[in-house]
Design brief:
By secondary structure, the protein is of the alpha/beta class. The protein is 41% helix and 17% strand. The strands form four sheets. Strands 3-2-1-4-5-6-11 form a seven-stranded parallel sheet, sandwiched between helices. The chain has a two-stranded parallel ribbon with strand order 7-10. A two-stranded parallel sheet has the order 8-13. The chain binds nicotinamide-adenine-dinucleotide and UDP-4-deoxy-4-formamido-beta-L-arabinopyranose. UDP-4-deoxy-4-formamido-beta-L-arabinopyranose binds next to α7 and β8.
């Protein structure tokens, strides 16, 4: 199992960069392709400094079949793929759906064509809890009914899962695992890699850390009139390193023959926290009061979601290990390191 070459598309991004580190630490050889549309080449310095080695990377677009074929040929013996490359801003996808279908669906199809040509049969795909929408019953299991997507972004994840299922039905040797991420937060404890939101963050934790660091005046909590214990929304916040390790375990399971055909697995902690609970944890670990106020609901937000993670724990032999406090501390340290 050691030293298998893994092509990591979008490997310079937030979750991809942490996964590259965990892959290398587990004995895999990650090869990155990224077009740097939502990341910076400096990320490679962070990864290489953590690992004290040079990870190979290529600048290119996953929609470019000739480029993918060329890199796969050049690298010769790639045995698996982790496909992170996608556009991920839900609001933007509503404004520019074609761009989202083009990038997210286009990249996947092109990549699968290149994999087929090179007879690479194992892929781990970045799916999302967004496929569930507002489920009637919590926690959500992988059998929870999938509702019509609420955004083009969400739809690209639903369609991608279906494409992977169809391809695995058509090709008996082809195996795909779609990991449905819940809310990844945090950063590497070295503060050498982390999340790099462009412009004003729309996600909660980057907005909190930027507010605490003085870059934003205050956080608006979007609604406290939901039917939850303190009225704010509930999410399943997972440390990005725990999530990264799930990818390593997914590859292990694919190569070990434990996962065949197409599978979907929830990747969360199994624990829901409200927005206000998260803010309190942040204030505790940061040792500072956060400037926030309650505002109106944000359109499109669901009230509550958290994962049933039994299937992933069993099939991947994986369990989250890092606490919410740890994730928030790592996120804040990363934010403070960015300022220097
Ligand atoms: P990210 O934007 O930080 O990383 C994506 C990377 O892919 C970036 O480095 C970007 O430059 C690259 N990329 C985009 N399109 C490309 C293309 N056509 N060719 C080559 N590279 C391309 O995002 P992330 O948070 O690391 O998310 C990774 C994956 O996980 C995405 O598929 C996203 O939809 C999914 N996901 C993310 C979250 C989240 O909250 N961050 C939750 C669920 C699912
Ligand atoms: C979390 C909670 C907000 C900002 C998004 C995508 C989803 C997935 C993960 C990719 C919500 C509240 C937020 C703020 C706030 N991504 N909030 N003030 O919406 O759960 O999920 O990222 O697949 O598809 O939709 O994450 O971090 O934006 O919000 O009160 O300034 O924090 O209302 O309840 P979300 P988030």
């Amino acid at each position: 199992m050691q030293n298998k070459k893994i092509l990591v598309t979008g490997g310079a991004g937030y979750i991809g960069s942490h996964t590259v580190v965990e892959l290398f630490n587990a004995g895999y050889t990650p090869i990155i392709i990224d077009n740097f549309s939502n990341s910076e080449q400096d990320v490679m310095i962070g990864i290489n400094t953590i690992l004290k080695t040079e990870i190979k990377w290529y600048e290119g677009d996953c929609r470019d079949i000739d480029y993918l074929n060329k890199i796969i040929l050049l690298e010769k013996d790639i045995e698996g793929v982790i496909h992170f490359a996608a556009s991920k801003a839900v609001g933007e996808s509503v404004e520019d759906p074609l761009e989202y279908y083009d990038n997210n669906i286009g990249s996947l199809i092109t990549l699968l064509q290149a994999m087929k040509k090179a007879v690479i049969n194992n892929i781990v795909f970045s799916s999302s809890c967004t496929v569930y929408g507002q489920a009637k019953k919590l926690p959500v299991t992988e059998n929870t009914p999938i509702l019509p997507a609420e955004s083009p972004y969400g739809n690209t994840k639903q369609i991608s899962e279906e494409i992977l299922c169809d391809v695995s039905n058509a090709e008996s040797d082809f195996n795909a695992v779609s990991l449905r991420y819940f809310n990844p937060i945090g950063a590497h404890p070295t503060s050498l890699i982390g999340e790099l939101p462009i412009g004003v963050p729309s996600n909660l934790v980057p907005f909190i850390t930027q507010t605490a660091a003085g870059l934003r005046e205050k956080l608006i909590v979007f609604g406290d009139d939901y039917d939850t214990e303190d009225g704010t929304c509930i999410r399943d916040f997972i440390h990005v390193i725990d999530l990264a390790k799930a990818h390593v375990k997914a590859l292990d399971a694919l190569f070990g023959g434990k996962l065949t055909g197409s599978s979907v697995l929830n990747c969360g902690t199994g624990q829901g926290n409200t927005v206000l609970q998260l803010i309190k944890s942040f204030e505790k670990v940061a040792g500072t009061k956060l400037n926030y106020e309650i505002g109106p609901r944000r359109s499109g937000d669901i009230e509550a979601i958290y994962a049933d993670v039994k299937r992933a724990e069993k099939l991947l032999d994986w369990k989250t290990e890092l606490s919410l406090d740890q994730a928030l501390e790592d996120a804040f340290n990363w934010q403070n390191a960015l300022k220097k």
